[in-house]
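User: I'm new to structure prediction. If I give you an amino acid sequence, what do you actually give back? Let's try with this one:
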Amino acid sequence: MKPPEPARGRPGETCTVTFDGRPLTVLPGRTVAAALWAAGVTAWRSTRGTGRPRGVFCGIGVCFDCLVTVNGRPNQRACLVPVRPGDVIRTQEGTGRDDD
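Assistant: Good question. You get back a string of structure tokens that encode the predicted 3D arrangement of the chain. For your 100 residues, that looks like this:
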């Protein structure tokens, strides 16, 4: 039996987002977490109180360690939110609210 031919899939056009003011080129279909990882960023949140760094832990939206601020909205789970052209992504401090 002859093996099937590869699909030869190709990603679409890249887009640009910013992370803490730094432009990042991102492949379409990636989550915020995947885009940050691809850019070498492994932590983008600090815990309330102790300020310890956090990034992706579970990768499926259960643990909430990957919270990030996207377009001014705090507490977005980076492992679930797809990037969109022009997104402004920021490191989140504590709860991401002004009243921490």
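You can read the tokens as a compact description of the fold. Here is one thing that stands out. The mean pLDDT is 89.
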